Amino acid sequence: MNLPFTSPRWVKLGKPDKSMLLSVLLASLPWRFEVPEQDLDITGITADSRKVQPGTVFVAVPGVAVDGHQFIRQALASGAVAVVGEQPASLLAMPPAVPYIRVADAREAFGWLHATWQGFPSRNMTLLGITGTDGKTTTTNLLYAILKAADLDAGMISTVNARVGSRHYDTGLHTTTPPADEVQHYLAEMSAAGTTHAVLEVTSHGLAQQRLAGCDFDVAVVTNITHEHLDYHGTWEAYRDAKAMLFRGLMHAYRKPDQAKIAVLNADDAPSYHYLRDVPADWQVVYGLDGVEADVTAEDVQFSPAGLQFTLKSPWGTSKIFSSLVGAYNVSNSLAAAATALSLGVSPDLVAEGLSTFAGVPGRMERIDEGQAFTAVVDFAHTPNALRQTLKTARDMVAADEGRVIVAFGCAGLRDREKRHLMGMVAAELADLIVITAEDPRTEPLSAIMDETAQALEASGRSEGVDFWRVPDRGEALLRAVSMARSGDIVLACGKGHEQSMCFGTDEYPWDDRAAMRQALHGTALHTLPTAKGDNG
Predict the structure, then answer these.
(1) In whole angstroms, what separates CA 383 from the centre of its chain?
(2) Taking the CB of residue 50, how many other CB atoms lie within 10 A of it?
(3) CATH architecture assigned to 366-521
(4) What does the pLDDT look like over 295-310, one tens digit per residue?
(5) What is 119-357's CATH superfamily?
(6) Crossing angle for the helix pair 328-343 and 384-398, nearest 10 degrees?
(7) Cβ(437)–Cβ(469) below 8 Å
(8) At the N or C end, where does the chain have fewer CB atoms within 10 A?
(9) Comparing C-alpha atoms, which of 22, 24, 85, 78 is closest to residue 53?
(10) Residues 323, 329, 335, 340, CA torsion sign
(11) Helix, strand or coil for residue 343?
(12) pTM for this one?
């Protein structure tokens, strides 16, 4: 290894009170094209024809269900003075007086236009991106805690919460990486507040959909790459390639004074490590329990229901880590955050301080205590690997008392169908009692989703009505789970975590697993909306 330099949802975007020349905006786009002869004063940029005002550039983005090119006429009628799109102008019947700029990727153009509009805020700070299938939210928050312990002016955007200057935002709905205009808006807020380091949780959807176009990253971090989102990406290889976009972009990003381009890799996760280590970076810092490959590692790891302890060893020094987090996967998350901070010049002692002060992320192994004789936990585990790690942690927590692991979980509709079978197999292997229930069935029949998981359980030797049950209403499912618990057991509600809604059909209904668990512990069910019919509609 080469040692580096030592050195309630998103708020609404306000109406722009500035303007910028069209030529200035277009100069930032990463393509060569003929710039319109007529320069214009632009007062806003939008991809939503309903938000067009006089002076706006309308970006026609081809969507999954709706193509923005269909709304160009509506945008022009509302006062759009220029249009950016992907289709040939000859197919659009554009008025000759209105500039049309054809680009290779309208989503990417949208991001770069907003980055220019905001003055390229990411270039005013060290920008750190954390991606992966599982653990990225916790790692993002851990790294933020370490940077704050080091007295750095840090900001953060994750799928659970955001820290922008002195403001704290909760982002508890079904969120991924925010749209490009919101990303640039919040980075601009951070820049104005004097932020020197910004940590962004980066999703595969966000990368594939160019929501981070115009972000000049300095550090790319991976937690792991396992089975997820194949409904969107098509294949595991395409999903992996989407994650790799964060790393491939490092060497092409704007270079900031005295800041290297650093890749932080997980030696314990072979699928990501062997692939990403071939992607160029100024430095690669490797973490993991593999002492041969890893630069930053943990020794003498000790687990308990109260948390974990280990000795952090690195080329920068050694420190003793005490954390209230539980589970082996949180050793990995802690190492990822520690390796990143150490590579930026944070001392091992300050890394230890940051890790020790971090109390956890809402909805991640969050304990719910209403005075019951057993342990109740809400966790976001919604992938086969995450469910495996959560159940293994639960098994360790009850081992001394010979307690049982009881889990309630579901699988989402219109998402990766293979997960339904895989998660059933994981539950059959590691849980004692299992309750299958709803988790955002969307427009799929809930009964059909549960059938697929039930078939996996039966194929693994489990018997319905003996050690697993189907309870369509999620509130009733949690009540069933806690009603079976006795002293020394652990009951887990997995899959929703911090989220504040559940999707039936095309509508989001208010839902909170933590509130539902509390109500179940008091003997009643928080019923899933719209009804507990066991199906949609």
Answers:
(1) 13
(2) 9
(3) Alpha-Beta Complex (3.90)
(4) 999 999 998 878 899 9
(5) Mur-like, catalytic domain (3.40.1190.10)
(6) 110
(7) no
(8) C
(9) 78
(10) negative
(11) helix
(12) 0.82
